[in-house]
Each structure stands twice: as C-alpha cells, then as structure tokens.
Design brief:
- By secondary structure, this protein is mostly helical.
- The chain contains six helices and no strands.
- Helix 1 runs antiparallel to helix 2 and helix 5 packs antiparallel against helix 6.
- The mean pLDDT is 85.
Length: 97
C-alpha cells in the first residue's frame, strides 16, 4: 500500500480504476494470497489442536513481523524487542502446559 502508484491513485476520489490499480498491484495480490493461505493453515491447526493451545500461536505473528521489519531496515527499538520477547515467552509457557 506504500508504493508510489497506489498512493497516487488513492489520493483521488474512488473509481473503478482505483480499485483495479490497487488490486492489480503484485505486492497487494501476494499479501491477499498469503493471508488466505494463513487462514487455511489456521483452520487445519484448529482441527487438530485445542483452541487454548492453538490460539497463543497467533502471537508468533508479532515475533515474525518484528524480525522481518528488522531485516528490511525498520527501526526496531529495545522496548519493542522486550515486548516481543515477553510474548514469545508466553507462547512457550502455554505450549508446555
């Protein structure tokens, strides 16, 4: 959503061409594809695990997001690292229970 092309088209009133430009962007399409694959995977996990054990795994999304942000050059501050470490510790504790 941060590409120059998408920002430009979103700066104007909504039209069919706006939707077409946004949804034909390769990164946006890839994001929707990955989101769909994640939803299907989540349904598979819920079919096999108790919800009380499976739900904390969603916290891994925070861990991966911060790690990817660091790799692509985002500013990852110490409080953010500590927060993610606490989330990760909670996931481990729940997983061992």
């Amino acid at each position: 959503m941060s590409s120059a092309e998408v920002k430009e088209v979103l700066a104007h009133p909504f039209a069919f061409s706006t939707a077409f430009t946004v949804f034909s962007n390769l990164f946006i399409l890839s994001g929707f594809l990955l989101y769909g694959m994640g939803a299907i995977s989540w349904l598979g996990v819920l079919a096999k695990w108790d919800v009380s054990k499976a739900y904390p795994l969603l916290g891994l999304g925070f861990v991966f997001t911060v790690a990817i942000g660091f790799v692509v050059g985002e500013d990852v501050t110490l409080p953010r690292i500590v927060g993610v470490a606490l989330i990760f510790t909670g996931i481990i504790l729940v997983g061992r229970s």
